Amino acid sequence: MTTRDELTEKLRGWFAGRLPDGLFEEAPGIIVDREEITVIGRIAVPATVPEASETERAVAVASRIKAFRERSREARIAVASEAEHSFGRKVSWGVVCGDTTQMFTTLSVPVMTRLRQSERTLLDTLVDAGVARSRSDALGWCVRQVGERAETWLGDLREAMRKVEQVRAAGPDSQG
Description:
Helix content: 40-55%
Strand order of the largest sheet: 1-2-3-4
Number of helices: 5
Structural class: alpha+beta
Largest sheet: 4 strands, mixed
Order of helices and strands: HEEHEEHHH
């Protein structure tokens, strides 16, 4: 059984070998789950005059990102197609330019869940208040809120899961 960390390492190596030289300033970050591989690379911040306003800098960054997206489209599609065939997951792309992160493509994957009436009522309240357009949107909003507010706890949980995977791998059924 391959752990998520092992798969991520394999994907980092695979993309390092497949991406055109100079596409990103450094090796891209790779995030993987059951359905999707997300590749996020850093691109150069455009030069602006020293006295440039925040608006001018923001427009320059947005223009740089748009130009990169258009210029790299064919190469990204070719790499993604090969990766999707090899790894059985869709590939999503994004860039970081200065302090701005922009995703080009991401999956929105349906997740089946069973909710009790009190939980459905919470989602309906979010919809009725205009926070979300639908129950699905409201559930996504709730998940994002937990992710933003519980990052330390989630980090601890992920670390504990990595240790469990290591112990399992070293267990009596391992081939090592």
